[in-house]
């Protein structure tokens, strides 16, 4: 059996999941981990027994024996420089979303990977949700006829939302709806988004990082399909779930409704009341099985490298998703629809928004 040496840079929540998954895989010859927090590095080292554990990601970049790298770092502004260095060193890369903070960064990463014949993908793990895969199949095989509309409503718990929102000023569209934009565009291929209109509502999160509590975005596809996606992160602390999602797909020959609210598992305790376990988006390890999407996604990328297969999420697709959620941010700001591809005027307005956000954060 062919094996490779792999590395995980950033072993927080998602990186920890990936490191643990890889440590159990027969496809991995040696695992290497990198984390800037010494206490967390030691914690994951004990859990995964890696060949090396370092505080400096350049140790991973300089190691010629490592051929596959999973980049799971925060804040999100670290994605571009670390991915750039790994790709330039000839390593295949799975990068957590977002692909980058700026369009030119995404374009450069895509070019480096293409020029060097490397596998490069973005961690949109919801494609590994069996319900999403089933929806993709029912659209592709014609069961629903011609798709007319797709609606997705996704809400996170307030505590989880605060954890995400406090580390960087990115909107619910950029951090949560991005997953839904990805898999909806995947379902509707080869259709492309051509217009975006979005509105946001302020609430609890405004004092945390100045972001909306929720955003609702309407995307018009070039084949006329309407996509409506709502993303928020303000469910009250008493809510028994980390993430609740409802999906409706209507077509000329049928409809498909997907309940991904995780209300099929109820745990009630004296201390915490009712909880819906295994309800995070990445999933979690439950003894000998992984309950969720991130475990299978992690191994799938490794198989793509070893068997020279196409990656699940091409980086060009992730770049398209990025353009769409940035258009949503702009639309919510100026109160009008934004056409895709983004015009020079729209790009200039986005640049002004970015600078204003930086000044407000200082």
Topology of helices and strands:
Blueprint: E1 4-9, H1 13-23, E2 28-34, H2 38-48, E3 52-54, H3 58-62, E4 66-71, H4 79-88, E5 92-96, H5 103-115, E6 120-123, H6 130-140, E7 147-157, H7 158-165, H8 172-187, E8 193-201, H9 206-209, E9 214-221, E10 226-235, E11 243-251, E12 255-260, E13 267-269, E14 273-275, E15 284-286, E16 289-291, H10 294-307, H11 315-334, E17 338-339, H12 344-361
Parallel strand pairs: 1-2, 1-4, 2-3, 4-5, 5-6, 7-10
Antiparallel strand pairs: 7-11, 8-9, 8-17, 9-10, 11-12, 13-14, 15-16
Helix pairs in contact: 1-10, 4-5, 5-11, 8-11, 11-12
Structure overview:
The chain has helices at 13-23, 38-48, 58-62, 79-88, 103-115, 130-140, 158-165, 172-187, 206-209, 294-307, 315-334, 344-361, and strands at 4-9, 28-34, 52-54, 66-71, 92-96, 120-123, 147-157, 193-201, 214-221, 226-235, 243-251, 255-260, 267-269, 273-275, 284-286, 289-291, 338-339. The protein is of the alpha/beta class and 362 residues long. The protein has 2 domains: 4-118 and 299-313, NAD(P)-binding Rossmann-like Domain (Rossmann fold); 127-281 and 320-334, Dihydrodipicolinate Reductase, domain 2. The strands form 4 sheets. Strands 12-11-7-10-9-8-17 form a 7-stranded mixed β-sheet. Strands 3-2-1-4-5-6 form a 6-stranded parallel β-sheet, with helices on both faces. β11 (243-251) and β12 form a beta hairpin. The mean pLDDT is 94.
């Amino acid at each position: 059996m062919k094996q490779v040496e792999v590395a995980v840079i950033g072993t927080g929540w998602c990186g920890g999941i990936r490191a643990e998954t890889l440590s159990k895989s027969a496809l991995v010859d040696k695992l290497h981990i990198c984390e800037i927090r010494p206490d967390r590095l030691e914690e994951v080292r004990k859990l995964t027994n890696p060949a090396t554990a370092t505080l400096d990601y350049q140790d991973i970049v300089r190691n010629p024996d490592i051929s596959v790298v999973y980049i799971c770092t925060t804040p999100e502004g670290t994605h571009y420089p670390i991915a750039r260095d790994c790709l330039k060193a000839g390593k295949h890369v799975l990068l957590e979303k977002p692909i980058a903070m700026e369009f030119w960064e995404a374009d450069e990463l895509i070019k480096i990977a293409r020029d060097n014949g490397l596998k490069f993908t973005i961690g949109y793990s919801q494609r590994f949700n069996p319900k999403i895969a089933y929806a993709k199949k029912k659209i592709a095989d014609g069961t629903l006829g011609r798709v007319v509309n797709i609606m997705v409503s996704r809400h996170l718990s307030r505590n989880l939302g605060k954890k995400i929102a406090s580390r960087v000023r990115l909107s619910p569209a950029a951090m949560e709806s991005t997953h839904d934009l990805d898999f909806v565009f995947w379902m509707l291929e080869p259709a492309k988004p051509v217009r975006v209109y979005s509105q946001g509502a302020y609430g609890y999160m405004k004092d945390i990082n100045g972001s909306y509590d929720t955003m609702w975005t309407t995307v018009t596809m070039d084949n006329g399909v309407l996509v409506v996606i709502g993303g928020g992160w303000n469910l009250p602390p008493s809510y028994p779930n980390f993430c609740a999602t409802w999906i409706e797909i209507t077509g000329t020959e049928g409809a498909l409704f997907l309940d991904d609210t995780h209300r099929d598992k109820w745990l009630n305790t004296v201390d915490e009341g009712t909880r819906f376990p295994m309800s995070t988006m990445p999933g979690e390890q439950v003894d000998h099985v992984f309950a969720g999407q991130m475990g299978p996604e992690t191994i799938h990328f490794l198989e793509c490298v070893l068997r020279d297969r196409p990656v699940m999420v091409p980086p060009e697709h992730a770049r398209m998703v990025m353009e769409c959620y940035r258009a949503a941010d702009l639309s919510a700001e100026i109160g009008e629809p934004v056409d895709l591809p983004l015009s020079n005027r729209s790009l200039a307005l986005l640049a002004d928004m970015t600078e204003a956000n930086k000044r407000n954060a200082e």
